[in-house]
Amino acid sequence: xxxxxxNVTVMETVENNPLHLEWTxxxxxxxxxxxxxxxxxxxxxxxxxxxQIIRISRPKKILEIGTAIGYSAIRxxxxxxxxxxxxxxxxxxxxxxxxxVSSANVSSKITIIEQDALEAFEQVKDYTFDLIFIxxxxxxxxxxxxxxxxxxxSHGIVVTDNMSFHGLVHEEDLKDQSRSVRGLIRKLSNYxxxxxxxxxxxxxxxxxxxxxxxxxxxE
Length: 219
Ligand code: SAH
Ligand code: MG
Prior knowledge:
single chain, alpha/beta, Rossmann fold, 7 strands, 20% strand, binds S-adenosyl-L-homocysteine, binds magnesium ion
């Protein structure tokens, strides 16, 4: 009986906050804002996974594709004081991200580039990145990967978010979906194959958060 009692206590502790995430008041406000305004920021489980990858690999320089309001950039930056370069094409998002990064006191560590990521290579081509976080338009994932991985350091890591497309990628019967959604799913499926078959990267795709791919450069 005493043992059972103890187990229950352990379970309860674990269930309370197994991801062990903590947020500053600013970050809490960003989460609330994102929810209210349907900004697709990274979900908690995905964030915890991404932050552990950063803790393990200690990247000096991180490239993010898809800033939105700066939530993931601010979180990634502070894990081990990395420099972050992040690209966002939406002007309103960029304005908010600049404000949020400033409020977080990390303007000197996070560079925000307002441009379509498909046209921003020139701006970052002189950098070397240790980690690239792809989190923008899903239909362009393969293009982002091909465009920016030449800037990756040896044994660098590419993390891609939203690989599951909320589970739709695994649905056999897609005929109920709209044409554009089906097109998007096809492109995302092709990206899955592209990553898993890539000769220069070891990729695993995890059912964590909204689906996260981790690709490690072989050399
Ligand atoms: N990384 C953020 C969420 C990004 S949401 C976080 O987790 O906090 C995806 C963002 O990518 C959106 O703000 C969208 O405007 C941007 N985006 C989509 N396609 C893009 C492109 N081709 N170039 C730059 N930004 C893009
Ligand atoms: Mg995402």
